[in-house]
C-alpha cells in the first residue's frame, strides 16, 4: 500500500470511528457505516496491520461495545460480527481484543446461528 492510499485509509477509519462514537438513530444509517467499515477492512492484508493499527484503534474498539454486540437488530449484529471477523483475520495470530471482549464476541457469533 502506498503512502497516499495509506493516509486516505487512516482518514476513513478515523471518520468511521467518530461516526460510531454515538450510535446513529436509524438502523439503515448504522448499517451503512458498518458496511463501509467492512469494505475498508477487506482491502487490508495482514502485513499492513502494524501501520494501520492506530488509525483503526478507535473504530475497532467502538465496534466491540455492548451497544453494538447486543443491538436489538439482527442485521446490525451480523454486520458487527462480520466486521470483527475481518479484524481477527488481519490481526491473526494476535487477538485484537482482551479475553473478556473476545468471549462476548464469540457468544454473539454463536448466537447469530441460532436463528438460521
From TrEMBL:
Its main location: nucleus. The keyword Glycoprotein does not apply. It is found in: Nucleus. Pfam families: PDS5. Keywords: Nucleus. It comes from the Eukaryota. This is Uncharacterized protein. InterPro entries: Pds5. Transmembrane segments: none annotated. It comes from Taxus chinensis. One of its GO terms (biological process) is DNA repair.
Amino acid at each position: 500500500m502506498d503512502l497516499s492510499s495509506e493516509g486516505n485509509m487512516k482518514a476513513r477509519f478515523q471518520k468511521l470511528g467518530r461516526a460510531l462514537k454515538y450510535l446513529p438513530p436509524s438502523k439503515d444509517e448504522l448499517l451503512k457505516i458498518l458496511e463501509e467499515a467492512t469494505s475498508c477492512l477487506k482491502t487490508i492484508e495482514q502485513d499492513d496491520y502494524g501501520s494501520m493499527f492506530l488509525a483503526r484503534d478507535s473504530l475497532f474498539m467502538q465496534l466491540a461495545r455492548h451497544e453494538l454486540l447486543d443491538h436489538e437488530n439482527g442485521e446490525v449484529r451480523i454486520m458487527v460480527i462480520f466486521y470483527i471477523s475481518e479484524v481477527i483475520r488481519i490481526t491473526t495470530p494476535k487477538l485484537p481484543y482482551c479475553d473478556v471482549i473476545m468471549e462476548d464476541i464469540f457468544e454473539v457469533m454463536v448466537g447469530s446461528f441460532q436463528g438460521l
